[in-house]
Amino acid sequence: MVAPHGSSGGVTLDYLMIGGGPGAFIGGVHKMALDLLGKARLVGGCFSQSHEKSLQQAAQWGLDPARAYKTHDEMLQAEAERDDKPAFVVIVTPNHMHYPAAKAALEAGFHVSCDKPLCLTPAQADELVALSKKNGLEFLVTYTYTGYPLVRQAREMIRRGDLGDIRLVTAEYIQDWLADAPDPSNKQASWRTDPARSGLAGCMGDIGSHAENLVHFTTGLDMTRLSAKLDTFVPDRQLDDNGYVWCTMANGASGSIWASQVAIGCENGLSLRVYGTSGALEWHQENPNVLVFTPKGQPARILTRAQGYLHPHAARYTHLPTGHPEGLFEAFANLYDGFISTIVARRDGKEPGEYDVFPDVVDGARGIKFIHATLESSKKGSAWLDVKF
Known about the structure:
Layout: E1 13-19, H1 26-37, E2 40-46, H2 51-60, H3 72-80, E3 88-92, H4 98-107, E4 111-114, H5 122-134, E5 139-141, H6 149-159, E6 166-174, H7 187-192, H8 195-198, H9 203-219, E7 223-231, E8 242-249, E9 254-260, E10 269-276, E11 279-284, E12 291-295, E13 301-303, H10 312-316, H11 328-347, H12 361-379, E14 385-386
Parallel strand pairs: 1-2, 1-3, 3-4, 4-5, 6-9
Antiparallel strand pairs: 6-10, 7-8, 7-14, 8-9, 10-11, 11-12, 12-13
Helix pairs in contact: 1-11, 4-5, 5-12, 6-9, 9-12
């Protein structure tokens, strides 16, 4: 197993997890990605609101049962007092628990990794940004798709001017898994369609926020105006399951985002297209090892993870030989590579490496404000709003 090329050397950091108990999906993905990276070790957690289930998960992962806790507050207090205090906490709960868990972890002096969305409200987001900065703690928000090497390649090509001035940006994240009312036993669907646990947005919060982050990460452009239309097609559903956003970027470029979980035939269709005055880029998550670059007036060029021509930023985060596909776990590991390398550098009084880049709490806060702006616009009949994230 090949580990990513980070700057943290042979250092292994201990970490804790909140959420990720039996039947959960994303907790296991985080753990597998960190195991792949080989720079962090899970030592304990509060994996479920049921202590019995938390103990069950700890046993499955071979952890000391004494470090499987009843509540996250109990865990943070006990672990903060240890001589071998873990370095960071991974939060993989339903959305409504992100804010209290992250706030408690920051107050206890732990670096934090949290699934998106960061929290439920802009006020909560601003509080977490301020608390992270005040306590000098790193905060990763796992917008997974920014970890793919060819997304990093696209970012660097745009920044060095390969596309010229950006005119148009469009992103889609389209699925069909919620096209019908889900089986009540489907744990993942049940909380994502429940406003008490998911928040005020459904599809736009769950996957539309990924599309927004991908646009910002690659182009570096901020939205200044947006108009949104959010739909709910499945009867009796309380949250949106489809949505369109039109936006104007700070440089005057036009943009659009389509997010849907009722688009029949679409599995996990996240895509990005960026058009400038001298070229264009296109990337699809379902074929993540390919980036299409079309210079103006020339044939399209198919870029892969071949090391000979990748930007050093992208090359750092590609690990297998050319032609061997890399995917979701490696992308997750890449985010953690930058996060852990930054923690270690700061601890040692050094500046992080040039390419120790990861989506942070500020990105998470921008995502929350984007979600709330789309809700407001849609409620006002797709009114255009001036925004500043």
